[in-house]
Amino acid sequence: MLAQAPLVIGLDPPTMREVVAVARDGVPVALSAEALAEIAASRKVVESLADDAEPHYGVSTGFGALAVRHIPVERRVQLQRSLVRSHAAGNGPEVEREVVRALVLLRLATLATGRTGVRTGTAVAYAEMLSAGITPVVREYGSLGCSGDLAPLAHCALALMGEGEVRDAAGVLRPASEALAAAGIAPVELAEKEGLALINGTSGMLGMLLLASADLHRLFATADLAAAMSVEALLGTDAVFAADLQALRPHPGQADSAANLRVLLAGSAIMAGHRRDATTRVQDAYSLRCAPQVHGAARDTLAHADAVAERELAAAVDNPVVTTDGRVESNGNFHGAPLGYVLDFLAIAVADVASISERRTDRFLDVARNHGLPPFLADDPGVDSGHMIAQYTQAGIVSELKRLAAPSSVDSIPSSAMQEDHVSMGWAAARKLRRAVDGLTRVVAIELLTAARALDLRAPYAPAPATGAARDRLRAAVAGPGPDRTLAPEIEEAVRLVASGELLAAAESVTGPLR
């Protein structure tokens, strides 16, 4: 197998796609010559302050509420070491590997701007850790999302020092010292300012936002696929998705979602058959008719979150910061409010997309609303229960998603003896968004599983080529209608096909890329 080419981190920030590739696919990392030169230049500024009688935060003072303490030169290496050890106070379950890799990469990208004052060797060691597949063990709790993600980043810095625990490239839990030695990486003894530079950033929040965004772009398109299959199998109308009607309310996400529904439903024999029926409904229920409005609003929310993420990717978040003209200045750029808000906003959108998906699923199961399908899509209703309890599972997840939509960013608990008296709770917002994305994946998968069964039950009428391709891909892994089978494995297989993008890809093999 050929070695992967490294992502070269330069003065320009990595893209969202590049962050995801390093985080999920294990792409190695290197620093450009320009970045190394900029790092070296800012380090000279920090070193010039070493003997300055004037106090400089993080260089010759304590931290937080202890910033009033002047630290003599001979104690400053201990100052940095103590900072990292004391701040590595995370607790709870391990955070996922992809999140930690994204976090380390984004901190490295900030170091590469030359605004933090670290030594080149420190930055290079982080790149080597990523490339070797060494992942520091970071815990669920510890970040308040202000002064950055302090505890999570401190655990990463601790590993760089050769302390604490890591997972190696094979996922084996090992002492950091052992893993670094095996990879030929020398532990770093931090110098002035470096401990602070390694932990004072929004890297964890941003990393989770970028990973969620990558998932949600796929999931919102997959939700359109699910809605199309439901509209089709419930004998709904596609007339409401017409471009001129959608243009009367010119939200871009709505236009994109409606366009997806139109191409997904094009050529449907099921829809053509019931258009000739004199009893065809003039208006469908909201969960069918308003799918572009809800899915589109979620898309527009995601576009706003992406804009915030792109600005944050271009930021050099540290305190104090080394300015381009050589000053070392304190600032408040580590506050996580911009990220916390959009992380919470996305959780609201995710909950609503899941909610409308569950409502469409429920319509399939009720003979009063499913237009001629058997109760619960059961093979022998009464003996068989069909998809009755699949909807229960979906409803339970949707209820949880509504709880996860409650914002974290409106909360603040003062810390550091009231020096840090207003915090963002952005890390918590990011953690719950990850759970919400998983929940949406499962809800949409159950709708697709149910809609595919209903499409089969509409035979001999055939679905549209695109929805039929998605149904057929599902049928390659999950059998069609019949007597009751254990549903859990079938739901899990549908979840896998949604999460991997395989069902969406099947539809797009007919339509081309959806919006």
Automatic annotation (TrEMBL):
Keywords: Histidine metabolism, Lyase. The keyword tRNA processing does not apply. It comes from the Bacteria. SUPFAM superfamilies: L-aspartase-like. Pathway: Amino-acid degradation; L-histidine degradation into L-glutamate; N-formimidoyl-L-glutamate from L-histidine: step 1/3. It catalyses: L-histidine = trans-urocanate + NH4(+). Gene3D superfamilies: Fumarase/aspartase (Central domain), Fumarase/aspartase (N-terminal domain). InterPro entries: Aromatic_Lyase, Fumarase/histidase_N, HutH, L-Aspartase-like, Phe/His_NH3-lyase_AS. The keyword Iron-sulfur does not apply. It is an enzyme of class 4 (lyase). This is Histidine ammonia-lyase. The lineage of its organism: Bacteria, Bacillati, Actinomycetota, Actinomycetes, Pseudonocardiales. The gene is hutH_2.
